[in-house]
Design goal:
Layout: E1 3-4, H1 28-43, E2 58-59
């Protein structure tokens, strides 16, 4: 494996949202710390000068960083969720 499609770094701000359980929660600082730890752990090969080596896995942060959900729990991947909201001033 060379690439991981994660972590999902959206914020869990709306329990009706179908991606809610895939997040690190609603606290932005926890999400930041967990995302950094995830990426560092996946992308680092021990004993290599710059950390990137044969045991590294590239991580792809998803979806809209800090965005959480669309209006009323709708998913922004679809037309019905096209209105992004940032509860708690997390924009």
């Amino acid at each position: 494996m060379t690439t991981a499609l994660g972590p999902q770094i959206d914020l869990a701000t709306e329990p009706r949202w179908m991606r809610y359980e895939d997040t690190f929660g609603e606290d932005k600082n926890l999400a930041i710390n967990m995302s950094k730890a995830f990426c560092d752990g996946m992308q680092t090969t021990e004993g290599v000068e710059n950390g990137l080596g044969k045991d590294s896995v590239v991580t792809m942060a998803k979806h809209w960083p800090g965005g959480g959900t669309g209006e009323a729990g709708r998913d922004a991947h679809y037309a019905y969720g096209k209105y992004a909201v940032y509860p708690g001033k997390n924009f």
